[in-house]
């Protein structure tokens, strides 16, 4: 017998894989960092299979107005979906059967079992390659960051005497356009608009570079680019992640900052950083995108951010164009605010920002394109000092007192300091200073418990600013506990949804006290399917019932941010079905903590 199947039933699961931690196997552990440091993100992936390298080349070849990335109809169409076939697996498997068995289903099961986790590992490579392409080629402004894969299988089998053999060919596809997905962002889903956008992008690049001091030094050119971008743009304080419309989508792309934009059309940090790299690329100046959670001082809260590293005279330095163009509250949309600066230009890792707080502490690199995926932290390493700061400093005259220096008060070592408890002294250790070994002795780390609280991580200091290392399994550390209400579930449905609505979106929300968790997830059981999804959105504030609320308003006073995941396009016939949701977070030291389970339904939100 012969059977051919397009496995549509796997699509929902495989779409989730783009947000889940990468799978692994003994034969191939999937994407991992290469040894050394690399300028291009694609070179940072170790042991990149040939098919993944070819996929990267295909993306580059199709990154113009005539390619399939701009016009998916130029790609193959399988079961109503435009796709690019990235990889094909072939194999033969044997299976046993009994009288009356469904041989067609048994053959399919045997083929998929024989393929094992190889398809999911291949998809992980695809997700990482697409993410690397996005960071290496910010000039390709019309693509979204979400990637979706699917697979189809052809198989045939022969049977007899209770045993059968199935030959299969399993194809793995990168999705370009389906009924509910488009690799292009909203506002750029018409090839003609993309072509016009490319033309405008190139005109803006040439306009900016027409006055660039090309005959000058690389330093002069970088200062010029920073000046142009901060003097022709105003940071977009109004747009939020997930906002719709071409202007909102462009805020994260190079075209917003290249055009010189303000107000609702202005760039956010990604727009500034991508534009800076595009201009550096045009000038032949090595430049990379970096991202993570940045903060301007040791006491400020970290924020999701993007900035650049740029190479000058053989060494790498940091440039944060966005923070060189600060928002002035009295005139937030002003292109020229009078506060434009070079404070965050050509800095080294050890450049002091304030009171001993260094740049690398201010801007730690995370470089994680997909939640739970590979972290591309093996990029160029910064020079220790800012550019031009390596010269020998002028030595002060030792015979002349320095009025700016005061002699610190030296404590009397014979007098005990009773202001801070000493955890090594019995009777002085805080109740939350605990031996970690009972919780970290196995393969899975468990969390200590406290009534009315949830565990939020192990720390090595009393102020709980330095997380315990992930591989530390012995000794004592400070256990942080927060109000249990934080790790609970709240829900929002699309405004205006009624029982008569054809479909709706359900946004799941939980709270966090900071942005240093390794990941935050929801375990969702819905309509007979269970999956763990990683929160892909974070907010300081949300609008609910016409009011702007903070996480502290919704969960508890310690909650600083909302974390969310959206179940999209839930159909009407599912409105009354229960959805079981359990929030979890993984603390900075690697402990997985489970919160309060809640059972919800769409109709309960009417």
Tell me the helix content: 10-25%
Distance between the termini: 51 Å
Low-confidence stretches: 1-26, 391-396, 398-422, 424-429
CATH architectural name of the largest domain:
Sandwich
Judged by helices, strands and strand pairing, the structural class is: alpha+beta
CATH class of the largest domain: Mainly Beta
User: So what's the overall shape?
Assistant: globular
Radius of gyration: 27 Å
- Sheet-strand content, in percent, reads 25-35%
Question: Total helix count?
Answer: 12
User: How many separate structural domains?
Assistant: 3
For the largest beta-sheet, the strand count, sense and barrel status come to: 6 strands, antiparallel
Mean pLDDT: 85
Using DSSP, what is the number of strands?
Answer: 26
CATH topology of the largest domain: Immunoglobulin-like
Walk me through this protein's architecture.
- With 606 residues, the protein is an alpha+beta fold.
- Mean pLDDT is 85; it is low at 1-26, 391-396, 398-422 and 424-429.
- It contains 12 helices and 26 strands.
- The protein folds into 3 domains: 2-182, no CATH class; 191-362, C8orf32 fold, CATH 3.10.620; 402-606, Sandwich (Immunoglobulin-like), CATH 2.60.40.3760.
- It is globular, with a radius of gyration of 27 Å.
Secondary-structure map:
Elements: E1 2-6, H1 11-17, H2 50-61, E2 76-78, E3 81-96, H3 103-115, H4 118-136, E4 149-160, E5 163-178, E6 181-182, H5 191-209, H6 218-232, H7 246-250, H8 254-259, H9 269-283, E7 287-294, E8 303-312, E9 315-319, E10 345-347, E11 352-354, E12 357-358, H10 359-362, E13 433-435, H11 437-440, E14 453-459, E15 476-483, E16 490-493, E17 503-512, E18 519-526, E19 529-534, E20 537-539, E21 541-544, E22 547-550, H12 551-554, E23 561-571, E24 579-586, E25 592-594, E26 598-600
Antiparallel strand pairs: 1-4, 2-3, 3-5, 4-5, 5-6, 7-8, 8-9, 9-10, 11-12, 13-15, 14-15, 16-17, 17-23, 18-19, 18-24, 20-23, 21-22, 24-25, 24-26
